[in-house]
Structures are given as C-alpha cells and as structure tokens.
Amino acid sequence: MAMNALAATSRNFRRAARLLGLDSKLEKSLLIPFREIKVECTIPMDDGTLSSFVGFRVQHDNSRGPMKGGIRYHPEVDPDEVNALAQLMTWKTAVAAVPYGGAKGGIGCSPGELSRSELERLTRVFTQKIHDLIGTHTDVPAPDMGTNAQTMAWMLDEYSKFHGHSPAVVTGKPIDLGGSLGRDAATGRGVMYATEALLAEYGKSISGSTFVIQGFGNVGSWAAQLIHERGGKIIALGDVTGSIRNKAGIDIPALMKHRNDGGALKDFHSAEVMDSAELLVHDCDVLIPCALGGVLNKDNAPDVKAKFIIEAANHPTDPEADEILAKKGVIVLPDIYANSGGVIVSYFEWVQNIQGFMWDEEKVNNELEKYMSSAFQHIKAMCKSLDCDLRMGAFTLGVNRVARATLLRGWEA
Ligand SMILES: NC(=O)C1=CN([C@@H]2O[C@H](COP(=O)(O)OP(=O)(O)OC[C@H]3O[C@@H](n4cnc5c(N)ncnc54)[C@H](OP(=O)(O)O)[C@@H]3O)[C@@H](O)[C@H]2O)C=CC1
Ligand SMILES: O=C(O)CCC(=O)C(=O)O
To answer: Where, by residue number, does NAD(+) bind (predicted)?
Structure first.
C-alpha cells in the first residue's frame, strides 16, 4: 500500500528544507500552493447522454517564472495527487534551471474508454473553464499520462478563441502547430542521458546492462528505444494490459512495430508473458518505472533486485520504500531530475514560439544533453556538500533555488 502522494512529496520537501536550514515560516509558505482550481466538465456523449468529469489545475509556485506542468487524464486523478505533482514541478523546473514555476492539471476519466470526439469535447470544455487562469506568461500546460500532442492542439485552439492565436500557451503541441522537434521523445531521451550519467559514476554503461521498464507509453517507449539503440538489454516490460520478458533481450523495434500495428504488449510473439506483480521485483541492473506513482512501496521494496532505479514516472517510490531501498544499497535517481527532459524541451518549445524561430532536432537534443548534464553535476555537488542521497541532493538543489527567488522578490513572514 503506497502513501498518499501529497504526504510523500511534502515529506521529501520538509527533509530538504531541514537539510538547508530554511526558516520555518518560509518552509511553510513554500509548501502552500498559489492556486487550486476545480471545475466540472459536462459534455454530451456520443450516445446522446450527458456525462460530467472533474478537472483540476493546481498552480503551485511562480517565483521563478510562469507555472508549468502537464495535464493528466486518468481515473485515479484526485486533488492530492495533482497537488503533489504540481509541487514536484516547482522543484523539477528549478533543478533543470529552466525559468518556470510549477503546476499540474488533470481530469478524472478513462481516456481509453472515450471516443476521439468525446475527448475533444472534454478537452475544449476544460480549456473554456480555465482559459483565464492559464497563459504564455502565467501557466503553460503540456501533455502527461493519458494526453498527447493532439490534446494540446485542442487546448491551443480553444484558448486561441478567447485570446487570439497563442502558440506558447501550451507545449508538446504537434510540429505543424508550433511544437518543437524532439519534444515527443524528450522525456525518454532525458531518461537515457540521466541513466548514462548515473551508470558512469559507478564505472558502468547502458551497453552491457540489463533493464526492466514499467509503462510503454510516451516515456517508456522512447526510453526503451533509446536504451536499446545504445546496446542496453531490456529483459522485461509491462503496461496496463500485462507484462512480457525475454532473457536474451526484447527486440524493441519489432515490439514498436507490433504495437503500432495495434497489437497488445502481451501478444508480442518473441517474448513470454509474465505476472505483472513480478515486474518491479524482476532481477535486473536497472529498473525504470514509467507509469504511475507509488508503485514502489513498503510492500514490494524489500524484494526489489535492481541495483539502480531511474524514476521516469513521477513519484514512483514512496518515502517508506526509499528507506528500505537505501538500506539494501539500491541507488535511486529521483523523478525531479530523471524525467526533467520533457519540461526542458517544453522550455525550448516555448522559447521557439516566443522568438518565432524553429530549431533543428540536433540543436534540441544537444541542448537537452547540456541541461541534463549540468543538472546532474549540480545535484552531485549538493550530495557532497550536504552528505545526502541523490533524492535529497535534487530536492535541496531545487528547493534552495526557489527559496532564493522567493527571498529576492521580497518575501516577508
Ligand atoms: N509525457 C511526459 O513528457 C512526461 C511524463 N512523465 C511521467 O511519466 C509517466 C508516464 O507518462 P507518459 O508516458 O506520458 O504516459 P502515457 O499515457 O503515454 O503512458 C503511460 C503508460 O503507463 C501504462 N500504465 C498505466 N497504468 C499502469 C499500471 N497500473 N501498470 C502498468 N502500466 C501502466 C500505460 O499502459 P496502457 O498504454 O496500456 O494504458 C502506458 O503504457 C507518468 O508518471 C508521467 O507523469 C514525467 C515527465 C514528463
Ligand atoms: O513539459 C512540461 O511542461 C511538463 C511535463 C510534466 O508534466 C512533467 O515533467 O511531469
């Protein structure tokens, strides 16, 4: 059983605040979100009935710039989860050194059970309800679980009806509407750079290491492809429909083709089906959760066999699991660094939109690598000076940057 997402995230924040010796009032104030929005989105369904879905946008902090973060469509979206994810975005944008604050949104729905036209109506109604609270220089949404470039295209179109054409109001858009080359792959590519950097610290490399990946959506599939390209052996993979394994390594390009042809993961011919409950505790060098939060908790952490965990998902490891994993000597690379490639390239997209100038993909990828590498060096420096693990290294780096910006603006208790 996982901890409540907000309690878990806030616990990590408080540990970082104490390590930094933050003033207790500043600590309290940094935890409180700037604004929490809840809206009812009522839409006609294809069968003529009406359905109502609850949508949220939590704007956590804007001391370092416009608030930034994805929109999630998932049945488990709830206010605490969105609040936790918004807070994580504040620390993540600071760790990545992109000039943003943090926000997150979501709608409680099952996107796989809605038709394309129902999804479009839902996205448009949600945008109508929040359009006056988002904007290029206030709050810039992006895709997250269950949403994609098409969702951002509908948001952009709906927002533009009220405010005129505003490409920089969302990122992760289709290229034809001002999206950035490389954004689709960016989170997975950032995960690959982060993995390379961490393994190198231990004299290891992607090539020659074995990987288990949970989630085969945007982040998981790109991470798998890029790790496979670099010679990593992905020996087990799972999504919501089931899990598969192959000791010799799963042929990722063939799996991508199978999936793009409409095949389910569990029906892939050259791998055997395995119990999904075993996936996270499967023997491997590197475990990469790329789906839901709280999947590593006190119940399964004692059985984890991976030596390294790269948190591509947001808050996949709860604090109780963190303690167990640390005792076992498992090295955990935290979400607010490991999956920051998405928001870094979102920043490049926003910059390109504001400048009205498009970068080529090589420039996007090179700049992403520079940002990821610089953040890793800064996290290591924090770990060294505060004698802490990577999660606290990343949290103290992010929290300290936000605290400094807050104080510079003239915060008073
Ligand atoms: N997209 C981005 O740029 C970023 C995403 N993230 C984080 O990465 C994670 C994945 O996001 P993203 O790839 O965009 O989302 P997608 O919706 O594209 O993919 C999610 C994947 O997770 C799988 N999944 C869902 N529920 C379960 C479950 N219970 N067990 C196993 N697998 C499951 C889905 O399976 P199925 O396809 O069968 O439903 C799918 O393969 C999230 O935590 C998100 O917050 C972090 C930073 C940026
Ligand atoms: O690209 C973005 O703006 C945010 C992506 C996101 O939601 C995340 O990093 O969790």
So the answer is: 187, 218
Kindly list the distances between the CA atom of residue 389 and the CA atoms of 12, 45, 80, in Å, as whole numbers in the listed order. Answer: 12, 49, 26
Q: Indicate if ligand 2 lies below 6 Å from the C-beta of 70.
A: yes
Active site residue 104: yes
- The percentage of the chain sitting over the pLDDT mark of 90, rounded to a whole number, equals 98
Q: How far is the CA of 214 from the centre of ligand 1 (A)?
A: 9
Instruction: Consult the annotation and say whether 92 binds a ligand.
Output: yes
Closest CA to 58 of 134, 125, 157, 112: 134
Q: Rounded to whole angstroms, how far apart are CA atoms 56 and 65?
A: 21
End-to-end CA, the chain: 38
Hey, whose CA ends up nearest to atom 26 of ligand 1?
Answer: 240
| Residues flanking ligand 1, CB < 6 Å | 143-146, 187, 214-220, 238-241, 290-292, 312-314, 339, 342
Q: What is the pTM of this model?
A: 0.98
Answer whether residue 413 shows pLDDT above 70: no
pLDDT of 144-178, one tens digit each? Answer: 999 999 999 999 999 999 999 999 999 999 999 99
The CB of 179 under 6 Å from ligand 2? The reply is: no
Q: In degrees, to the nearest 5, what angle opens at C-alpha 29 toward C-alphas 28 and 34? A: 135
Choose which residue among 58, 64, 68, 139 to substitute to test ligand 2 binding: the one with the highest number of ligand atoms within 8 A of its C-beta: 68
Q: Give the tens place of pLDDT for each residue, 332-361.
A: 999 999 999 999 999 999 999 999 999 999
Helix ranges (H only) for 263-413 are 276-279, 319-328, 335-338, 341-355, 361-386, 390-408
Q: Which helix (H) or strand (E) holds 219?
A: helix 218-229
The reply, when asked if residue 49 is annotated as ligand binding, is no
* Residue 378 Cβ < 6 Å to ligand 2: no
The pairing of strands 272-274 and 233-239 is unpaired
Atom of ligand 2 nearest to the CA of 141: 3
C-alpha to C-alpha distance for 152 and 215, rounded to whole angstroms: 22
ipTM for this model: 0.98
